[in-house]
Amino acid sequence: MLTTSQVCALLGVSRETLRRWEKSGKLTPLRNPMNRYKVYTMDQLRQFEQIIPNLFQDQAESPTSIKPLKKYTSIELFAGAGGLALGLEQAGLWHSLLSEIDRDACATLRTNRPTWEVVEGDVKNIDFSPYLGQIDVVTGGFPCQAFSYAGKRLGLEDARGTLFYEFARCVKETQPLICVGENVRGLLRHDNGKTIKTMVGILNDLGYHVLAPKILNSVHYRVPQKRERVFIIGIRNDTNIQFAWPKPSTRIYCLKDALKKGDLYNNDVPKSPGQRYPEHKKRVLKLVPPGGYWRDLPENIQKEYMKASYYLSGGRTGIARRIAWDEPSLTLTCSPAQKQTERCHPEETRPFTIREYARIQTFPDDWKFTGSMSSQYAQIGNAVPVNLAEAIGNSIVAALNSYYQTQEPHKIHNNELELV
Question: Could you tell me which residues come within 8 angstroms of residue 223 by beta carbon, excluding any fewer than 6 positions away?
Answer without folding.
Answer: 253, 328, 360, 361, 362, 385, 387, 388
